[in-house]
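To: structure subgroup
Subject: Chain for Friday's discussion

All,

I'm putting the inputs and outputs inline so they're searchable in the archive.
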Amino acid sequence: MKIPQAVTNALTPLRKYGALLIVVLAGLLLLLWPRGAGPPPDTEIPEAAGGTFDLAAMERKLAGTLSSISGAGRVEVMLTLRTDMEVVVVQDTDTRSRREAEDGTVHMWDDERQAKTVLAGAAPIVTKRIYPRFQGALVVCDGAGNAKVQSAILEAVTALTGLRADTVTVAVRQQ
């Protein structure tokens, strides 16, 4: 069976650029390949996941959790921070130097460095979030007079905050 001349003419560029076409198609396939990590594009990310830290909200949540311990009663929590939250963003750094040669030697006259934050849309690209570290905690509750309740609260606070036991105080609420 003879192949028509029109088909042969149409396949000539394909033979010549076939490898390039395969690479381009593979690249398009990789770009369109679904990514498993992260929320779908239409999903709204909660503000807490966006990198904010609210100490008062943390204290309220911890107090609510501790009040569910048997015998604890009403609970109030105060936390102090050793470090605040830090957000590290991508920066594009540009360094410029002006040099002048005199008598075969090179003298540096000026060295200038500029850093610009890289944006994705209107928001900076975040590479790392360093959440605050706690310094100490005070827990005031009705049941702190009971040694078992006091021990359970101390154990819970140290587990949830990463604090050492000697930096947590559990006190009885004033009647």
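Points worth raising on Friday:
The longest strand covers residues 105-117.
Confidence is low (pLDDT under 50) at residues 36-49.

D.
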